[in-house]
Amino acid sequence: MPDRRRASAVPAPPGASIPRSLDARAVLGRAMLDSEFLRDPYPTYRALRDAAPLAWSDEFFGGAWLVSRHADVELVLRDARFSAQRTGGWVMHPADEAHTNRRKARSELSGFQRLFARAMIFLDAPDHTRVRQVMSAAFRPSDLQRLAPRIEMAVAERLAAIDSHSPFDFVSALARPLPAQVIGMLMGLDEAEGDAPADVVAWSDELAQFVGAPAPNRLQALSAQTALLAMARHFDGLLARRRAAQAGGAEPRDDVIDRLLQAERAGQIRGSAELLAQCVMLLFAGHETTRHLLANGLRTLLSHPEQWRQLQRDRTLLPGAVRELLRYDSPVQYTGRRVATDLVLHGQTLRRGELVVALIGAANRDPTRHERPDALDITRRTAPPLAFGQGPHVCIGAALTLMEAQSVFAQVLERWPDLALSPTAVPHWTGNALYRGLNELSVQCSGLSANTQTATPTLPVPLSVISPDAACKH
Description:
- The chain is of the alpha+beta class.
- The chain has helices at residues 24-28, 35-39, 42-51, 70-78, 87-92, 102-108, 110-116, 127-136, 141-160, 170-175, 177-187, 200-211, 218-247, 256-265, 272-303, 305-313, 318-328, 360-363, 398-415, 463-466, 468-471; strands at residues 54-57, 64-67, 82-83, 168-169, 335-339, 343-345, 348-350, 355-358, 419-421, 428-429, 438-440, 442-445.
- A hairpin with a 2-residue loop joins strand 6 and strand 7 (348-350).
């Protein structure tokens, strides 16, 4: 069994004990996380994969082991010796805080840590198993199938509102607002009753800046705390209204919020902090990844016009095309784990408490797993990518994300078959090493022949095809 005693939150880096052949800076001949990496990380990943199965980098959280090959990334995601409990050193020890200020940081960021550490994605078994059983009930295929027509209509309405007679920004028009709207539907956030917070995208941006920083500083941590606590206050009020309604005899609603309240009463969710943590992180995670899949995916397809035309001819390729887009340019580029017990990996001892960064983006381009990994091929029929991970922490919302993406791309293909990247547009990347995405994506119709008639949306592929088990596990 793994050693579950509390590990040092910020272990001292191995330093001189690291062979030069395993030092990422020495392997690359430069810092890893430079502007070229943020623009295109895949040449860097290739160099790391080719050099060694394991590397040490001082650029991630003061020091971390990097795994870049598919087999090793899969191992880290599946093996209980690598713990998801990793928020302590992350939240409470900002990179620019001197050791003498650690007590101050612990005090001013305690609210952040109290919620963040209780989110399901940062729990290990048995707590993770308990909370996941509750959350999984909201993502049953039958529930998502009932949601499908509403998603289709939301996509259709947003596309219909776009003036396609001139170039437009796909990110602001659809990729940013739609995922927040959809996760709000699933959670039961009623816009008419003020349940859906208008600031969710702004809050999400602040959290993403912190979560996606390889070494977040104090300002990033404080800004993320402000956003997280604002989200928590919103949900606190909503939960209080729901409790009062149920006490007055109202029937429970068939949505995530009421299911969480039922689980709290049954003791499956333990305490208000754990309840709020699941609400806040589901709203954040349900929005952040999907928005980047939509924008990155459309940019990739339009950059490969022959494959765009192939999808035009054969829409049955769409489910596989979405999985290939996730492999080719994953919205989530890496994830972290703490070593739970001393172990040896590729001849190198990893000590309890050390951080391991699993480079998902690198694993998805591993030639031992995928033939011609740097080529986009929407007809690819190899193993699913690691974009949603593997193991006990497989992305709980994978099927919902796939449903949204298929709906968006199908309706864009139908409405604007001649859509193209604006010829003078330059990609505006977010500069976030974890969440690879675009701030803006300028596109235009190459003629004025866009099909702007509002047709009855075509429902997505059955969920048996796009469930996490069939498509993407992590």
